[in-house]
């Protein structure tokens, strides 16, 4: 059985003036890592099997305009932002983190815009996440993941051609250049720390 977690590492919001239009818009960027671990039921040891960069995937940046009638009350603005993000499949944990900073900033900018006279603004919220999945070593799906090691865990780039990769005794694969540089400083596998190399 797999256990999944999603940790928010940071949440940063910046605002930019937009002279091209008088709308208040926002962009949500999701960046971070997705990690898959196996957990031994015998000794409790956890092994990192796969790590990928979330920001390289599709659908990690979303842009929306906030209509002026939704900037009348905080409740209406908060509701719109939440619905837009939910509609586009943003997980609850990320929405709970991003929605307050976006709608509060939008309401403040709306009040400020009235004072200075109709200027547009862009709110950029960046949320850093680490999604982790633990799979028990008695789970059938572990074999599927272990055979899918298509990324070097040292440089996080695709392994590519077989002649440029090296398998250690523990069966983990790396780029030859990466693992030789690693082994020069550390005499153990970077994934499972197997040290009888």
UniProtKB/TrEMBL annotation:
Biological process (GO) annotations held by this record are: ubiquitin-dependent protein catabolic process
Q: Which GO terms describe its molecular function?
A: ubiquitin protein ligase activity; zinc ion binding
Q: Which InterPro entries match?
A: E3_ubiquitin-ligase_domain, Znf_RING, Znf_RING/FYVE/PHD
Specify the RING-type domain's residue ranges: 152-193
Question: What Pfam families does this protein map onto?
Answer: zf-RING_2
Keywords annotated in UniProt: Metal-binding, Zinc, Zinc-finger
Organism superkingdom: Eukaryota
Q: Which PANTHER family match?
A: GB|AAD18119.1-RELATED, RING FINGER AND PROTEASE ASSOCIATED DOMAIN-CONTAINING
Q: What is the name of the protein in this document?
A: RING-type domain-containing protein
Organism the protein comes from? Capsella rubella
Native organism taxonomy: Eukaryota, Viridiplantae, Streptophyta, Embryophyta, Tracheophyta
């Amino acid at each position: 059985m797999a256990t999944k977690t999603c940790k928010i590492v940071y949440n940063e919001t910046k605002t930019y003036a937009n002279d091209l239009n008088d709308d208040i818009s926002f962009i949500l960027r999701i960046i971070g890592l997705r990690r898959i671990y196996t957990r031994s039921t015998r000794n409790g040891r956890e092994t990192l099997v796969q790590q990928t960069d979330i920001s390289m995937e599709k659908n990690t940046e979303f842009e929306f305009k906030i209509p002026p009638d939704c900037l009348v009350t905080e409740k209406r603005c908060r509701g719109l932002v939440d619905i837009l993000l939910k509609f586009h499949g943003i997980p609850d944990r990320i929405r709970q983190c991003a929605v307050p900073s976006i709608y509060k900033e939008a309401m403040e900018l709306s009040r400020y815009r009235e004072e200075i006279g109709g200027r547009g603004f862009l709110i950029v919220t960046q949320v850093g996440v680490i999604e982790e999945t633990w799979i028990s070593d008695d789970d059938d799906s572990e074999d599927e993941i272990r055979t899918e090691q298509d990324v070097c865990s040292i440089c996080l780039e695709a392994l590519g051609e077989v002649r440029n990769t090296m398998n250690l005794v523990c069966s983990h694969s790396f780029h030859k250049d990466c693992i030789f540089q690693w082994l020069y400083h550390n005499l153990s596998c970077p994934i499972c720390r197997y040290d009888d190399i």
